[in-house]
Amino acid sequence: EVQLVESGGGLVQPGGSLRLSCAAPGFTVSNNYMSWVRQAPGKGLEWVSIIYSDGATYYADSVKGRFTISRDTSKNTLYLQMNSLRAEDTAVYYCARAGRGGYDPFDYWGQGTLVTVSS
Amino acid sequence: DIQMTQSPSSLSASVGDRVTITCRASQSVISYLNWYQQKPGKAPKLLIYGASSLQSGVPSRFSGSGSGTDFTLTISNLQPEDFATYYCQQSYSDWTFGQGTKVEIK
Question: Among B35, B92, B95, which would you mutate to test the A interface (most chain A Cβ atoms within 10 Å of its Cβ)?
Fold first, then answer.
């Protein structure tokens, strides 16, 4: 069974850092495209970042230069390192599997982890 | 960047109704258009991919159509568990979501 389990969210001050993790029992992270999507309170979905199976990474303009997506093959885990956090980064962050091709939908999602940026 | 616009933003409907939600892209996304359902406090769930293909396990009352810039999600015979927010997403150039359509009980 495909599962995605996020962790690492919490309260952080503006300018601070946080690292989110997404464990994936049931399938191999490095064989798939994996993405992060966020949802601010009461708002819609916003794509944040993606890592391809070949290791290529892409980011939304709103997080470029501040966030870094990565994976650990030995732990079968996806990460999102978030630096220079701003109030507008406050959201539930979901990891999602994006299939094996650039046009694939996001077919499995984690339960989400809440990041709150506030002083 | 490709912008996705859904309409309406919300609608009220009754059990048994046929509901149609539209999604328009700012430029052609060919057929790389996906639909998701999200219930409060839950993660989104994939319903339709490639504009018209039904994801495994999704009831056949959900259907999708369209190509290019104009797409439609139809729910026939609306059920109580279908009251939720629906999002379209293009996966042709980066990944962009529509603003969502909330389907409420009339």
Answer: B95
B97:A106 CB<8 A: no
Strand-pair partners of A11: A116
Q: What is the DSSP letter of B37?
A: E
User: Does residue B80 surpass a pLDDT of 90?
Assistant: yes
Q: How confident is the model at residue A18 (pLDDT cuts 50, 70, 90)?
A: very high
Per-residue model confidence as pLDDT tens digits over A52-97: 999 999 999 999 999 999 999 999 999 999 999 999 999 999 999 9
Q: Which of B42, B46, B27, B35 is nearest to B6 (CA)?
A: B35
Residue B91: which of A37, A46, A104 has the nearest Cβ?
A104
Among B50, B91, B97, select the one facing A45 at the smallest CB separation.
Answer: B97
Tell me, rounded to whole angstroms, the distance of Cα B17 from its chain centroid.
16
